[in-house]
Design brief:
The chain is α/β, with parallel strands linked by helices. The chain is built from 11 helices and 13 strands. The radius of gyration is 19 Å and the shape is globular.
């Protein structure tokens, strides 16, 4: 296997379980992933979602770091628009001081929740309208190279660490790839939400040409004893893309959530596009064969696997089957 396998964890809360159960499962999944030789374990950020226990990924990352010893751990990602870049830099430097060489500072620009959650998160500040200045400021604090003339020049994000967190931008367009390259960040393409092949190719090409590096690819994948069983467990996974008449489109998990988003945001003119995201399914060999094909076609060096099933036992079995003998022996 000539590429790395990593995991994106949303801490889903299965029916009849609690957030306590979900987070305990996340830790167990990370520990098993480390045994199997997975490269990274990322925690997602979602607000106001009763089905996910992943509102504060930095806290869960700290706990997972304490419960593992080799696995890279980070966020996929912190929603930077809600926070002070200075505070985000401090958080990741603190993590890097606790676990040198193992911390990923993954950030994104999606809201991570409905408009009421966004307003609650940004209640104490105006909320930046442009993502790039936030990223530039965070980059400056993480590297101690805030631009001369910046109003915060001289402020230092502590603790100062010799092993800085890896800086990774998550995105789904050539513009996001170009932004990552501009500031010297690694880039992960969010393929689970942006499955269009032309967009994927254009984004990967943009990043490669601008940075000289290869992007990672996040995608949905689930393995079971057979393809039929895997497809049955995944079910009819859907994404509902809200397209306002003006403004950026937003991905939501259900039609009701998309309509609620429009109401909370005061959007009166919009359309909702129902999408069936591609999920790589099958037994372990099936999934690895499809990953092999993506690796060969696009030159992907790392896959970040997002598991769309809530049941913990099935998710655990899936990562074991996908790892297979090759990666387990390497571990």
């Amino acid at each position: 296997m000539s590429y790395l396998l990593s995991l994106l964890e949303k801490s889903p809360i299965p029916d009849g379980k609690t957030a306590v159960d979900a987070l305990r499962h996340s830790v167990k999944l990370a520990q098993r992933a480390e045994e199997l030789g997975y490269h990274r374990f990322w925690l997602a950020e979602h607000h106001g979602n009763a089905q996910l226990a992943s509102a504060a990924p930095e806290i869960v990352a700290a706990h997972v770091l304490a419960k593992t010893s080799l696995l890279r751990v980070g966020t996929g990602g912190v929603m930077l628009q809600h926070y002070s870049p200075y505070k985000v830099a401090e958080v990741f430097r603190q993590l890097a001081a606790l676990a040198p060489g193992r911390v990923d500072a993954g950030v994104g620009k999606a809201p991570g929740g409905l408009p009421l959650s966004t307003r609650a998160l940004q209640r104490r500040h105006a909320g930046a309208s442009d993502f790039e200045p936030l990223l530039a400021e965070l980059d400056g604090f993480l590297r101690d190279e805030l631009a001369t003339g910046h109003p915060l020049a001289g402020a230092v994000a502590t603790p100062v660490v010799s092993s800085a967190p890896q800086r990774i931008l998550l995105g789904g367009s050539p513009d996001s790839a170009a932004l990552a390259a501009k500031y010297g960040w690694d880039f992960t393409f969010a393929g689970h939400f942006n499955g269009d092949a032309a967009n994927l190719q254009a984004t990967l090409d943009t990043y490669r040409q601008a940075s000289g590096k290869t992007a990672a690819l996040a995608l949905y994948a689930f393995a079971a004893a057979s393809r039929a069983e895997a497809e049955a467990q995944v079910g009819q996974l859907r994404i509902f893309k809200l397209h306002p008449e003006s403004g950026q489109a937003v991905n939501l998990p259900s039609l009701a959530a998309a309509e609620q988003y429009a109401r909370q945001a005061g959007i009166r003119s919009y359309r909702i596009e129902e999408l069936s995201p591609h999920v790589i399914t099958g037994n372990g060999e099936d999934v690895r064969r499809q990953l092999d094909a993506l690796h060969q076609r696009y030159g992907i060096h790392e896959f970040i696997i997002d598991n769309p099933v809530a049941d913990f036992a099935r998710r655990l079995t899936s990562i074991e089957l996908i790892a297979g003998a090759d990666i387990a022996v390497a571990a």
